[in-house]
Specification:
It is a single chain. By secondary structure, this protein is of the alpha+beta class. It folds into two domains: 153 residues, Immunoglobulin-like (Sandwich), CATH 2.60.40; 47 residues. 24% of the residues lie in helices and 32% in strands. The strands form three sheets. It has a five-stranded antiparallel beta sheet. The chain has a four-stranded antiparallel beta sheet with strand order 4-1-9-7. The chain starts with a strand and ends in a 9-residue tail after the last helix.
Length: 284
């Protein structure tokens, strides 16, 4: 939603700065610093010999929101400042020789004077000299042209509902990033390299988890699952390892003490049968 405002455009033409009969002791160049409606411009540097000829044009612009009436704009200009500073470029930071200051309304819309201005110059003002400036106060010769035009700007906070909000998208993105990833995703994420060794993508356990090592569980037929990734190529060797572990458990000191202290015949036969799991382990 657009709102009406007034744009003030000031065109300033600097002609010269004169000060008859005054000579500066320092020989550094001088320039004018101009501030109108809080916008700053510097003139070109000229030799420090009066009169200072600038012949330079400057442009200043400012938009006054919620001001449609020229009278309201004039009241706002009364709170804006216009300042000229004549500065000599003495090291280290320069030296202020003279200045002129006035509110923007009086400067841009002066009252008509009975005395005519100099030929070719619309206006002139006297500057206030610094305490260490030698001689009389300098005088600025210039001309101005002020234009007031209607200006439309977009109201802040009014957003087209058909367009996505950039602030909303940024806050949603920050909210997503604020939640930490699961530990499994951070732990299992690793780069995938091509044949040349360059990393081209990343794999995460969120969609491709790493294989988890599981213990073997026998099936109903008493054989291990052939689809298990933990089975070795030689199933007979694995069976022998399992039987060797069982046999070592049955021949522990506790089991042998049970036999020595007088077990029943059925218990002895049961233990002996367990020892004879493999043919070569049976006593002859």
């Amino acid at each position: 939603m657009s709102q009406k405002a007034t744009k003030v455009v000031v065109e300033l033409f600097l002609s010269a700065v004169t000060c008859p009969g005054v000579f500066l002791t320092e020989k550094d160049d001088v320039y004018l610093n101009v501030c109108i409606m809080r916008h700053y411009e510097n003139s070109e540097s000229v030799p420090s010999v009066f009169p200072f000829r600038f012949n330079q044009k400057m442009r200043f612009e400012k938009v006054f929101k919620h001001a449609n009436d020229p009278a309201a704009v004039a009241d706002l200009l009364q709170n804006e400042a216009v300042r000229f500073e004549l500065i000599q470029q003495n090291p280290p930071a320069g030296e202020l020789l003279a200045y002129f200051e006035e509110d923007a309304r009086t400067f841009l819309f002066p009252e008509p004077k009975l005395a005519p201005s100099l030929p070719g110059v619309d206006r002139e003002v006297l500057m206030t000299r610094a305490p260490y400036f030698p001689g009389i106060a300098p005088r600025i010769e210039f001309s101005t042209r002020t234009t007031l035009m209607e200006y439309s700007f977009r109201s802040e906070g009014v957003i087209n509902p058909s367009l996505p909000s950039m602030n909303g998208a940024r806050s949603e993105r920050k909210q997503k990033l604020s939640h930490p990833l699961p530990p499994a995703v951070l732990k299992n994420e690793r780069p995938i390299t091509d044949s040349r060794g360059s990393t081209n993508q990343k794999r995460s356990s969120a969609w491709a988890p790493d294989p988890v090592e599981k213990s073997w569980m026998p099936g109903t037929d008493g054989r291990p699952d052939r689809q298990s990734k933990n089975m070795g190529p030689d199933s007979r060797h694995m069976w022998e390892n399992i039987h060797q572990r069982v046999r070592s458990l049955l021949t522990t000191s506790s089991a042998m003490n049970r036999l020595a202290n007088g077990a029943t015949d059925s218990e002895i036969d049961d233990v002996m049968r367990r020892r004879c799991v493999l043919p070569h382990s049976c006593p002859t």
